[in-house]
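Q: Hi! First time asking for a complex rather than a single chain. Here are the components, and I think there are two in total. Is that enough to go on?
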Amino acid sequence: MGKANRLSEGELRVALADLPDWRLADGKLRREYRFRDFVEAWGFMSQAALRVHELDHHPEWFNVYGTVRVDLVTHDAGGVSARDVALAGQLEAIAARLSAERG
Amino acid sequence: MGKANRLSEGELRVALADLPDWRLADGKLRREYRFRDFVEAWGFMSQAALRVHELDHHPEWFNVYGTVRVDLVTHDAGGVSARDVALAGQLEAIAARLSAERG
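A: Yes, that's all I need. Here is the structure of the assembled complex.
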């Protein structure tokens, strides 16, 4: 239950400080990733999908070619919760690893 | 070149007759698929991604949980082309096969 609580403004500020490429938009945590092409974008999404399934917390995400736009919100909590912040952190880790691999 | 031409209204009408679950929205060919959950939606997207890569024609698509919304348009042609119709047909075939498999 505690994990699904909506974060306060202060808590959100702290969370966003650790997620510099994310911002709050329409009450959701948002980031747009840009990959070189569809194959790289899809590689990212595929790794992310496994994590999403594991966490049982689902993004609203959009893809076209090398672009992946992600919106995270916890509808049950009526806003952004720690679960969204956790998923954002996982996505950042996946993207950073892919970026390191391709050099 | 011929394949990337924008379809005329008449050609579009003929194409849509074969794609009853698709409609024209914002100048794009649009369908929303509803699956039972994220795993089924992701299974569909994964099969579709291979086809997308093969055809080298990329959808604008959005997913949340069991919902997959697809928009098809050929920007080079300034509208819907035969390539969009072809991809829509492939997506229909994938969805139909998945639906048959799960009974």
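A: Chain A has a mean pLDDT of 95. Let me know if you'd like any chain examined more closely.
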